[in-house]
Automatic annotation (TrEMBL):
Residues 1-40 form the Glutaredoxin domain. It comes from the Bacteria. This is Glutaredoxin domain-containing protein. Gene3D superfamilies: Glutaredoxin.
Length: 61
């Protein structure tokens, strides 16, 4: 859902899929996350999980 939202609003993103790139599981755990998706901006987490309310803020930036 998050990926679909970003695509529909022409927001570019780089995807790291934990199923095909399991090293990112450890990366997320080190940052304290226990669920995906996690959206970061320059390695700063800004959204965890599917949060349409917060995703809309990205559209207005």
């Amino acid at each position: 859902m998050t990926k679909k939202f970003l695509s529909e609003h022409n927001i570019s993103f780089e995807e790291h899929n934990i199923n095909t790139e399991p090293q990112y599981i450890d990366y997320l755990k080190e940052k304290g996350f226990r669920s995906v998706p996690v959206i970061e901006d320059n390695d700063d987490p800004i959204i965890n999980g599917f949060r349409p309310d917060l995703l809309r803020n990205l559209v207005t930036q």
